[in-house]
């Protein structure tokens, strides 16, 4: 396993420890502000408006995952519907991301499907695009089944995510290709064992480029979601060389990460979206961001020291 991935695995493991979690929840507020727009919908909309002024569109994401009761899942659905209704009033592109475990996937696939259906009915009427994030490997198959079911029911404004670190992803792409999918391509953010995922950054990057190029060639709309300068550069070069127009793909980055690059890409005429998370349940999201970059450990230390 390479060092960056070993670091990620360690951070994600330590983050689950109740003592660490308690400490970060008490003292890590300064830290969460770097990656999260705020705890309320109003704060998220304000952040989205500021991005719009810079030519970057927002993907609003109500934080929450792995709910443990149907009641909780239904409460999240209600909050997401509030978001959809608020976006319906906005003049900018309307875009939401969510997680199926937020809608009860771990309780039952039928429940998650039913709650997704409710969201999509309102979202389609309001012109809001909805993307299902991809979570860890045990949930991939169910996520794809739900995607397939909803596309068969005729919901068009729905996208999903593929992760280049999983060995299975190319076959998953074959599975969803008939639905003319809108795919966000990412490297993958979870701690995955070597039985299911590449453990070497070079292989994950190579697979990312392979999948990206295949999708672009086959006419799939691709949201290229990475901060990696090499991969962004290669995406630009490839699309230019192949004559793939800028309306066949876009770049997506995370709120708070490389904001100057987000603005630069927008100025160059690319569609750019920033993933804007908000809400009270920020801990797992923040842990994954810390795990992505060894330098981020200093941010944790500084924040715990009150800096
Ligand atoms: P890396 O090789 O990790 O990073 C490249 C460079 O980017 C780093 O050297 C650094 O300069 C910068 N960088 C990367 N991460 C950070 C950070 N946290 N803080 C500061 N700088 C950083 N993963 C999923 O598993 N499922 C999803 O549904 C999903 N959705 C995503 C949506 C968007 C819009 C984005 C951008 C990412 C999403 N991810 C998702 C996360 C993704 O899988 C990666 O974990 C994450 O993007 C980091 O990988 P990278 O491609 O930026 O490359």
TrEMBL record:
UniProt cross-references to Pfam families, sorted A to Z: Pro_dh
Catalytic activity: L-proline + a quinone = (S)-1-pyrroline-5-carboxylate + a quinol + H(+)
Ranges in a coiled coil: 59-86
CC cofactor: FAD
Organism from which the protein derives: Thermus filiformis
Cofactor binding, per record: Binds 1 FAD per subunit.
Pathway where it operates: Amino-acid degradation; L-proline degradation into L-glutamate; L-glutamate from L-proline: step 1/2
Any GO MF annotation of the entry: proline dehydrogenase activity
InterPro entries linked to this entry: FAD-linked_oxidoreductase-like, PRODH_bac_arc, Proline_DH_dom, Proline_oxidase
Residue sites binding substrate per the record: 99, 288-289
UniProt-annotated binding residues for FAD: 134, 163, 187-189, 201, 226-227
Enzyme Commission number(s) of this protein: 1.5.5.2
Keywords linked to the UniProt accession: Coiled coil, FAD, Flavoprotein, Nucleotide-binding, Oxidoreductase, Proline metabolism
EC top class, as a word: oxidoreductase
Protein's name in the database: proline dehydrogenase
Domain Proline dehydrogenase, residue spans: 44-292
GO biological process per UniProt: L-proline catabolic process to L-glutamate
